[in-house]
Write a structure and sequence with these properties.
Largest sheet: 5 strands, antiparallel
Strand content: 5-15%
InterPro entries: DUF1570
Radius of gyration: 23 Å
Distance between the termini: 29 Å
Number of strands: 10
Shape: globular
Number of helices: 18
Number of domains: 4
Strand order of the largest sheet: 4-3-2-1-5
Structural class: alpha+beta
Pfam family, one: DUF1570
Protein name: DUF1570 domain-containing protein
Length: about 475
């Protein structure tokens, strides 16, 4: 596998009966890139390692692997539960529900809300949460006019539409089922969209801010072929060829395609094709190392599936938040587009391709690295520069907008965690900023509104810097739990 660029993706699926999880960190020989996988690790004679991942079995050379033995997510959850629920109060149940949601344990979060209801159904917060859950559990009716509009836009008379409680997904026909999930790609995508939907509303509600769920289906389009996605992108003049998805406010539709987009993914696919040829040759010639070649080929093919799923999770969670924010009134669809606000929130909710634990607000190593790269820059890394919304313009001119995403994510992470009520107030007041004024005037107006909501800018920046120094990536947190 030398020379292949593999980004970090983890799928957490440990059994709750175990108290220990193995995280295998594989560093690609000759590169700084790593792959992190959770599963049961066994060391074999001859210097090889077998890792049983939820999607299949992988084989590695032991010298290229570092294994961390950590508690499972479930065992950490039990530990936190024992500490928080020594006294069973509504406050403690809600705090534990928030912890579970942040760590990707949506099912446990909803169960805890049920327990809180049983404890005290008269509590105002619990009654509001119960009303929200009832709304979220109620399917929205299909909308023939909306469906016709989507088909007219995408030229999709032959595309199939699949529905979940809140989404209408237009897609090419999918009949083959995934070996691990036993679902089609369309079914997997809808399940993921619904998970983002519930997590979005509950994250705000557990902080005391109740968004109103939309009463019409949210339309998404999933192209099977990348070329069809690019054709639609060119038609809409999005100029986003390096992205795996996008959301258009005017039409209220999110667009995706069913493929990985990263350079690493492309190289993995290329390597799979090459290894398949070597595998067939080894079989025909009965090569002495045929078994090793076959295992390597199968392992790389499995890595392609894992990376594919990882990119799905990251892209869908990001774009779905754009759509949800626009359909709940949080960011009105006809309001002034302010990039750092929109992308900061979507990045905050985005389930990282590199996170060991999925969930809301988890620390992605790429995002925090981009923040740290500009931390000492008194211009591009300053709060005023981010808030003015110049970041995306400047970074685009420099050829890479990822640093702007990193700064927007970092500031939003701090404000969402530490100054939530002020952030909600700023979201509301930012609507008054006109889109029809020069960029420099718009920037000054945004800074003025921001300071009205958050107070002294020097104090805020110092608080932000201190907060960011406390953040740790998921691997660092896991190591601390050892």
């Amino acid at each position: 596998m030398s020379g292949v660029l593999v980004a970090c993706f983890v799928c957490v699926a440990a059994s709750s009966s175990n108290v220990r999880a193995d995280y295998a960190i594989y560093r690609i020989p000759g590169t700084d890139e790593v792959l992190v996988l959770e599963g049961a690790v066994n060391y074999n004679p001859g210097g090889t390692v077998t890792l049983r991942h939820p999607r299949g079995t992988l084989y590695f050379n032991a010298r290229d692997l570092k294994v961390l033995e950590t508690p499972t997510r479930e065992s950490v959850y039990k530990k936190v539960s024992r500490e928080l629920l020594q006294e069973e109060t509504v406050d403690n149940y809600l705090e534990l529900a928030k912890w579970a949601l942040q760590h990707g344990m949506l099912k446990e979060c909803k169960s805890l809300l049920g327990d809180a209801w049983k404890l005290d159904s008269s509590d105002t917060r619990i009654r509001k949460l119960a009303a929200l859950m009832a709304q979220m559990n109620r399917p929205v009716p299909s909308d023939p006019d909306s469906e016709a509009a989507v088909r007219n836009l995408i030229g999709g008379s032959r595309m199939q539409v699949s529905r979940s409680r809140h989404f209408a997904l237009f897609h090419n026909h999918y009949e083959e089922k995934d070996a691990a999930t036993k679902m089609t790609r369309a079914e997997m995508r809808l399940e993921l969209l619904e998970k983002v939907y519930e997590s979005f509303f509950l994250t705000f509600a557990l902080r005391g801010f109740y968004l109103k769920p939309p009463q019409e289906p949210l339309n998404s389009v999933l192209f099977k072929e990348h070329k069809d996605f690019l054709l639609m992108e060119r038609r809409l003049q999005m100029d986003l060829k390096q992205l795996a998805g996008f959301y258009i406010r005017e039409e209220n539709i999110s667009f995706f395609f069913d493929s990985g987009t990263s350079e690493m993914y492309a190289r993995l696919v290329q390597m799979t094709e090459e290894l398949e040829k070597q595998k067939e040759l080894a079989k025909r010639t009965r090569s002495r190392n045929a078994s090793a070649v076959i295992r390597t080929a199968n392992s790389v093919a499995l890595l392609v599936e894992i990376q594919h799923e990882g990119e799905d999770v990251g892209t869908v969670s990001h774009e779905a938040v754009h759509q949800l924010a626009a359909n709940t009134g949080l960011f009105p669809r006809d309001g002034t587009p302010i990039r750092w606000i929109h992308e900061g929130l979507a990045s905050y909710f985005e389930s990282s391709k590199q996170a060991v634990w999925g969930g809301v607000g988890m620390v992605d190593s790429n995002r925090i690295d981009y923040y740290r790269a500009l931390e000492g820059d008194t211009v591009r890394g300053s709060v005023d520069f981010i808030v003015s919304d110049f970041g995306f313009i400047v970074e685009a001119a420099l050829g890479d907008q990822l640093p702007a995403y990193g700064q927007a994510w970092a500031l939003t992470h701090f404000l969402f965690t530490e100054r939530f009520e002020d952030l909600i107030r700023f979201y509301g007041k930012s609507r008054s900023v006109s889109a029809d004024i020069p960029l420099d005037e718009k920037g000054r107006e945004l800074i003025k509104v921001f300071n009205e909501c958050f107070g002294d800018p020097v104090t805020l920046e110092l608080e932000w810097r201190r907060y960011m120094r406390t953040l740790k990536t998921d691997i660092e947190l896991l190591v601390e739990e050892r």
